Amino acid sequence: MATVSVPTEGRSRGLLRRPTATTGFWSWITTVDHKKIGILYGVTAFLFFIVGGTEALLIRLQLAQPDQNILSPSIYNEVFTMHGITMVFLVVMPLSAAFINYLVPLMIGARDVAFPRLNAFSYWVFLLGGVFIYSSWLLGGAPNGGWFGYATNAVLDPTRGMTFYAIGLLIAGIASTVSAVNLAVTILNMRAPGMTLFRMPVFVWMSLVVQLLLAFSLPIITVALFELLFDRRFGTHFFDPVAGGDPVLWQHLFWLFGHPEVYILILPAMGIVSEILPVFARKPLFGYQFVVFSGIAIGFIGFGVWVHHMYAVGLGPIANTAFGISTMIIAIPTGVKIFNWLGTLWKGDLTFPTPMLFAVGFVAMFVIGGLSGVTHSVVPSDYQQTDTYYIVAHFHYVLVGGAIFGLFAGLYYWWPKVFGRMLNDTIGKVNFWLMLVGFNLTFGPMHILGLQGMPRRIQSYPAELGLAFWNLVSTIGAFMIALAVLVFIANVLVTQRKPKQMEADPWDARTLEWTTSSPPPEYNFEELPVVSSLDEAWHRKYAETEDGRVVPVPAGGSGTEVEHDGGHGDGIHMPSPSYFPVVASVGILLLGYGVIFSWWLAAAGAVVLLFGLYGWALEPSSE
Amino acid sequence: MLESPGSVPGSMRQRGGKGKVRKRLTLVLGVLALAALAAACAPNATQDAMNPQGPYARESYDLIVPVFWVAAAIFVLVEGVLLFVVFRYRRRKGRAAEVPPQIHGNNRLEIAWTILPALILAGVAVPTVTTIFDLAEEPTGQVLEVNVLGHQWWWEFDYPNEGIITANELHIPTGEPVYLTLCSVGLGYGQQPTPNDCQPGPPEGQAPAAVGDGVIHSFWVPELAGTQDVVPGRTNTLTLQADHPGRYSGQCKEFCGLSHAYMKFVVVAHTPADYAAWVANQQADAVTPQAGSLAATGMDVFLNGQCIACHAIQGLEDANGNPLQANGGPSLTHFASRECFAGCIFHSADPKQLAAWLENPPAMKAGSWMPDYGLSQEQIQALVAYLQSLT
């Protein structure tokens, strides 16, 4: 595709010459296209997924047998900390961001997000934040105080790791905050004519809830991280009880962010599943409004349950009671979603290609994670379960059986739309079943291990505790998951060799992104769609007769023609690529290193950042 | 003839020696299956929340079990419906793909499946709340009070009314509530040794340290009670009780740095008579070794070396005639009466482990605040003899 916007002048007015590449390396560095940025998010998150998965395998190797010392305690602590940070901040969040970035404008009938350069900036800051955290392995030790970074241990630790943690998460937080604002504005302001809020696909709704959760929870962790950084770097005493601080302050701040974060991780996957189940049941989502409102309710109540991470801290029976009950309450909207998914499948015409398998697998596994979650609301039970492998089992059922299964469903479902090639379904099924069995072998036994007395975050356990058998099973399961991921990679490689010919709507789907070509043109839609109903794409293809039967609309009847031969799109005004987002984010990276190593480096970072922002401000959004 | 895999216990291996390959394979598989079953039941698990041995642990257990069955019933129901739907409504081979009726929802169903779970949860909430308040109550009547001090990475037990200080082993009488007051102390990273004391804040007349006293630990002995965090600057309490004499394993549950995995302890429950005998022994001063013995040499090494900077032994005095005071290290007064040391990961009765520990503690336990003092082999052997004489 050639550039769609014709420069209005011969020369750029900005500080740097406007980038012009539309293919190749520089086109990716300077792109502001939400679809390219979505792909960048996806690829980066997947690479981090492999790294974080390798860390998980190391943990499982170390714990496969009692009394092992494959990883020393200091390395083990770094590995489990980095596994948590990676999977939460560098895998599930950005992989969700990949889907949100790519799909939201397509689903609401927009040409791009509200602030395309800001979108690119978010991605680059996220990437460099990840690079920053990982560079700690080479620059004085990786974070080793857990992803939860509890004070005072995180303050007192003599290595540089937790300083990298604080600054790295602050950098990643900038990326998430910026993109939260950008995407919320996009969803609220950029919808196509007729796309009312209650005609938006559930995935868009869940994306909106997630952006609002991010916007309100990230400031809390930002405060906490700055306090941690100041305690470590500048000798303040926020968490130091000797000088009047309080280590429990960190826990409140962390979990007041951390619990909404759990929903930030799971709601996009719930949105994906809510898109996929109706397509392969050939029925609309059962109780659309209830699914939407329960998502919103989860978002709100999610801010009121954080103390269920802290029952053992000693906050007293009244606090524990209040938060036990709020935790029970949040189970209700979660249950509503599950029942509505079952209602969607009921009396459907079900087919089970790989995306559907993962989506149904998501429902089946999320039920388990949800039920074990409810047991945490029973506070005296949690007095035993807290900080054991029971908890590890619970949240992996939510974040792997839930989020990761949902995201894999999304990968298989939208792959043809994004890349114009269909992933192989047979390999996909092998991928699914390996993952399902491996996942349950890995995390199912952990429920038992936790109740039998295995605390979390221990580098080793003695043979006398009788924990060897289930730990070995768990390790075997972990390697099955790894095999499943390898099968997925093989599927991608096999698919890449197929010809790039994909119809616009291979699944007979229901939402707007399937009305444009696969992959979509840079400008998304030849003409912006006019929306007249929920499941717009479906209603353009099918009509209901008076006796309730569903019949296809005759071809060409309501204008679903999407096959273009190219050469269109002239005159559509698209934002131009820019160097400045990446320049500004490099400035932030240098600032981060500067706080640790040298104020001169920080000053240099500030100069680069200012140059980036200044050039950005002077540059017109398109020319 | 093939030899069985190493996983088969020795006795089985001998019996299977004459059989045919197939027979042996059956045997191996059978033994493996049995081993799996045995491991699944985990008869060895001495730290098992599902094996409550006292009334306080039982309160949690009595909620875990019924809640499990409620959850199991919901699990079977929901997954059952899911499986039913998947099989019942899948597109059959050979049947034309027909678009099903477009059902958009059903408000009555929505209301039903909102209210029903709420009712179930309300049912669970009642015993939950009453148990929370039951467990928070301070026990009355005959109660043993013990201060628990969490150090990096070992536990100190201070019996204020009996005047006993011990480490890594909490001795209690059966049938009597034990009311624990928990605090976090000890050497923060890189700090100077300070007296073992639950009070937060610096000793009188000293400037505050740059950073807090200790880190967060969590006290957990699942067969006797639920978890209680041990938080710097905060004093928490926990009640536990044992029905029967025995040894109950516990360990630190909150990540507390390098050797978090090696911060274990054991609760030893005695009959009241045995407990009284234990108290009497612990209250006595340390045994003085016979002059000229190896243990006496060890006592000299102890008194004249670096040991007394951190460790105390009741009954001994320093060069100035002051009684020894523990600063960050455990009291060693009745070291040999304890079965384990250093966070309950080594055996006190094993001279080899003890010697290896004295030679280079950080090599035995990552991050140990007791450094390698470069003791000679003679000094180490003498110290081992002395420590093992401290019954």
Could you explain how this protein is built, in words?
The complex is a heterodimer of chains A (623) and B (391). Chain A has helices at residues 25-30, 34-63, 73-107, 116-135, 153-156, 161-189, 202-233, 247-281, 288-301, 317-345, 354-377, 379-385, 389-419, 425-451, 468-496, 536-541, 580-597, 599-618, and strands at residues 542-544, 550-552. Chain A is mainly alpha-helical and 623 residues long. Chain A has a single domain (32-514), classed as Cytochrome c oxidase-like, subunit I domain (Cytochrome C Oxidase, Chain A), CATH 1.20.210. In chain A, helix 7 (202-233) packs antiparallel against helix 8, helix 10 (317-345) packs antiparallel against helix 11 (354-377) and helix 11 packs parallel to helix 14 (425-451). Chain A starts with 24 loop residues before the first helix and ends in a 5-residue tail after the last helix. By secondary structure, chain B is α+β, with helices and mostly antiparallel strands. In chain B, a hairpin with a 4-residue loop joins strand 11 (340-341) and strand 12 (346-347). The model of chain B is unreliable at 1-19, 41-45 and 207-212 (pLDDT under 50). The chains are: A mainly alpha (623), B alpha+beta (391). Chains A and B meet through helix 3, helix 5, helix 8, helix 9 and helix 10 of A and helix 2, helix 3 and helix 4 of B.
